[in-house]
Structures are given as structure tokens and as C-alpha cells.
Design a protein that fits this description.
Blueprint (H helix, E strand, L loop, with lengths): L1 H10 L3 H26 L10 H21 L1 H12 L3 H5 L5 H7 L7 H18 L5 H27 L11 H7 L12 H10 L7 H7 L6 H5 L1 H22 L6
Helix pairs in contact: 2-3, 2-7, 3-7, 3-8, 8-13
Length: 255
Amino acid sequence: MLYFSQYAKARLEYRLDFFSSVFASFLGTAAAFGFLLIVFSRVPAVHGWTFEEMVFLYGFSLIPLGIFNVLSWNLYLFSDRYLIEGRFDRVLVRPVNSIFQVLFEAFRLESLQESVTGIAAVVWASRKMGLSFSAPDVVLFVLWTFCGAAIYLAIFIGLTATSFWIEDRIGIVPPVFNLMQFGRYPLTIYDGWIRFTLSFVIPFAFASFYPVVHFLKRGEFAREFWAVPLIAAACLAIAWTIWDRGVRRYHSTGS
């Protein structure tokens, strides 16, 4: 929290720049909801999913995504900024775990609007569908949201760690990042190989789709819903292992 609060103070010194970034980020989010409006202006449902259910799914997916995006800024820049430019040497001499230093050195605060917009979308869709949530449901909603953010972080920490072996300024993070879009829509609309990929290879579906099925009171995928914390824990363990081995392999820039 100290890292975050200090960075937030510095970022808010330039309020116009910050709020411009928030507005630009919001426009991108609004465009995605606009796409849903266009689709459902022509059809009443997509594979049995109504407009309100799709808004709920998309809104829920934005909440962990916003948390992830706030923390993930340095993951996209890691290979270029930390390895090729040699800044990782500075990280290793500090008495704090290197993963936390990389994550907490910079934040993308404007991405908090994604979480806020996602919550608003979920509330709106819930009211339109007449959904009611008990106290245990609210607790599960919060916990599964953080599990989703943990899954996103773990996947991209693991992918970022491959930069210790693959010496490239861009790395393999950007192509995989684009796959996150698939997890914002019902998994049932995709072919089998895409479902398998999003569930068991790069498990984005466990961060968004599988939790939502339960909260929408649909009967499908109950086992997958309860497996979300296990998938989050497994992803974090794998990511930590890959990162740890990569750090051991690191030999500085030689300059």
C-alpha cells in the first residue's frame, strides 16, 4: 500500500494528464459495450445468452481485469526496461522480492475505471434480470474476483519470466494478451479447441466465464466454478517457479 499511495500522489500531481488517461481508457471500455448493443440490436440472444447476461459477464470480467491492469504495467516493459537496459540489477540488490518490486514500481491507475465500470454493469444487469444475492454470494463474488485477478497476474508473470531465456524487446506477452478478449464472452460460442485452450492451456475462462455462470444461477459448469481458487493457486505456483528459475539464470547485461 505504501508503494501504491506514494505513486498515486505523484501521478495526481498532473491531474489533467491523469483524468485524460482515465477518459481515454473509459472510451475503450464503452466501445466494447457498444459492440454488444450493435449485436443484440439484430438478435435476441446468442447461443442462449441474453443481452443482460452478456453485460453481466462482460462487466464481471472487467473487475479482475482492472485490478490486473493496474499492477501489470511493468510486465509489458520488463524485457526492454529491466533486462536489456540492465535495471534488473538494481532490483536484485534490494531486500524485497523481485516480483513485487517489478509489479509495484509503477501502476496504471487509470485502469481502475475498468473495475468501477464493471461493477456498474454487473449492478445494472442484475437489476434488469431481477437477480438477488445472499451474503455468501457477495463474499464469493469478491473472492472470485480476486482469484480472477490472480490468474491474470500469474499467467503474465509466467510469460514475462520467459524473457530470461528469450532475449527480445517485445517478448511473448502481447500476443497472449489479445486472447483475454475471448474470455469476456460465453465459452459455449467457441469451437472445442478454443474452449480447451481457454480452460486448460491459458485458463482465462476461470477468471471470468466460469464464475459468472454460477452468479447467473445457471446450472452449467458447477465443478469449474468451485475449481477457480485451485486454478488461481496452481497458476501462481507455476508462475513463481518459472520466475525463480529465470532469476537464477540472470547474468546481468555485462556492462
